[in-house]
Design brief:
The protein is of the alpha/beta class and 479 residues long. It has 17 helices and 21 strands. The protein folds into two domains: 5-13 and 71-380, Trimethylamine methyltransferase-like (TIM Barrel, Alpha-Beta Barrel); 386-415, no CATH class. It has helices spanning 15-32, 39-47, 63-72, 120-132, 153-164, 175-190, 218-224, 245-266, 293-309, 327-343, 362-380, 386-389, 391-397, 407-412, 427-432, 438-450, 458-477; strands at residues 5-6, 34-36, 51-53, 58-60, 77-79, 88-90, 94-99, 106-108, 115-116, 169-172, 200-204, 211-212, 229-231, 236-237, 272-273, 279-282, 287-288, 314-316, 347-351, 353-354, 359-361. Strands 1-7-19-18 form a four-stranded mixed sheet. It has a four-stranded mixed sheet with strand order 3-4-2-12. α10 links the parallel β18 and β19 (347-351). α5 (153-164) runs antiparallel to α17 (458-477) and α7 packs across α8 (245-266).
Length: 479
Amino acid sequence: MKLGLESGQLKFLSKDDVEKIHQTSLRILEEIGIKSSSKIILDFFKKEGAETDEKTGLIKIPENLVKDSLKKAPSKVVIYGYNPKNAIVLENKRIYFGFGGTPTPYILDHVTGEIRRPTKEDVIKATRLGEYLSEMDFIMTIAGAFDVPYELEYIHEWEVLLTYTTKPIVYSAPGLFNANKVIEMGRVIKGDRLEKEPVFGVYVEMPSPLMFHMTNENIFSLAKNNIPIVVGQMPQLGATAPITYAGAVALSNAENLAALTLAELIKPGAPFVLGAYVTPLDMRTGRCAYGAPEFAMGNIANAALAEFYNLPTFGWGGCSDSKLPDAQAGAEVMMNSLVAALSGICLIHDCGYLAGGSIGSLEMAVISNEVVGMVKRIVRGIDVNEETLAFDVIRDVGPGGHFLSHKHTLKHLPSLYVSRLFSRESEVKWMKMGRKDVRTKAREEVNKILSQPVTIDKSLSEEIKKIVRKAEEEVLKKR
């Protein structure tokens, strides 16, 4: 089991600020309400005492239901993965980094340099890369399987994820059909222990502002089976949320509380991970700006709310608006990753994302892995004790001496971060080594990793494939 570094040093909301946001979120749910296109969700809330309107689909959730649900949600969530040694414990602002998010519509081909539609093979390559990269603690994906029937895309992507990585997984399974099939796949790996040792968490997102969709019916299956529900709301400033940051956060938080209330009413103690963040809309382009400072700031607000509720969090880090692994990408990835880590976000995803989440890049994933290593070193901080203050060592060396040959230096040398990708050699040596830029080195690393032999559990793989084939039969019959 892997215990992530504890963080949370970066804050800019006071307790009073957070309380005001919380109270506004409660008022939004009770006085304005949330609209549902799902009759299942509407009827369930009606049965639990919420005010509902069958004609409009509006649900007004009373404050007492929300507060009771918050008391039931666990403060600690564990996602185990195939190998329990890789299990991650989400609590106390422990930080973990991972790949991508939802399937990207494009991938930057690391061989040709072209931007194209990804295939299932790209999902395999991305998953294998994530399994290998040392700083990636959990796996989403940075490619979509767009060469399979669209109704079965998530099923095929889950097949890959559950076959090619031993790390914890967080990924989308919208709707009851996908959720049930994924849970069935999980039982292939864990059997009856799945509820106690979930291999994965499932990403859930509701339409903003203030909507439940039929795809959110997956919350019923996830809660009943004790699968961690990982929410990632993305209302956009000035578009699907107020342009003022506090108002947007209150709206996003209300959406999270609505999902949490639903989950805890279905099954008290259902594991829930808060993702109450917001995204800026660039009014010039009409695109969500992943590289904007306001995007990074959402992690700080999200972490403050999670601390208030004593819940684990879901946020982002390794993402950029750039279309290539260039200087812009490096700057934006470092900003997002460092802010997320210092805020104390538990699940920090999006490593390997370019173009605001539209393009996946294996090269960028390798670069992000290096950035994350640096960020983790910063978060680890400085130990201050008798050994590290080194008074006796300073006395041994004395004025005018040097510490290069002292045993204290050798003992503590591993505490310094050594870059595995970024250039630190002299300019003369760099020129002799071929003048390689970081993208070239990242591409070489991708090729090296993908040339390694593939190790998978063939018996489990075949059982999962049977579930995929059965899903195909069920879907294609309905066509």
